[in-house]
Design goal:
Order of helices and strands: HHHHH
Radius of gyration: 20 Å
Distance between the termini: 39 Å
Number of helices: 5
Shape: elongated
Number of domains: 1
Strand content: under 5%
Helix content: over 70%
Structural class: mainly alpha
Number of strands: 0
Length: 133
Amino acid sequence: MKFEWKQIIVAFVLGLALGAFGIVRCLPFGFHGMWKNPEKFQQHMMQQFTSRLNLDADQQQKISNILNQTRAKMDALRQETHPKFEQIREAAKEQIRVLLTPEQQQKFEAMNAEMDARFKKHHPEPHGNPGEA
């Protein structure tokens, strides 16, 4: 039993650290901004590349094409892996659920519903639902 709690704590700490890193990386684009508007994110990146690297017009066009292709590949990967992440997340919820009393389970379900609603509010799916084939 102690080993299971250690795993949960480690997973929580790792998730917290990764989440904090993600927030810091996204701050220039507003909270969740790079996901809501990937074109705006790309424009920002191009401005950074152009000004810091002193790109000429030909380099700008070629790098913009690379970023477009990369974004398309990342979107495809996200759609491919999203169901697997959901399976892992649901398995973790089930492992937690069995440790709870019936009253705690009800509260846990309410917490999950709130978190899911908050996630959907901040993560609209502009490129289609990742769960769709």
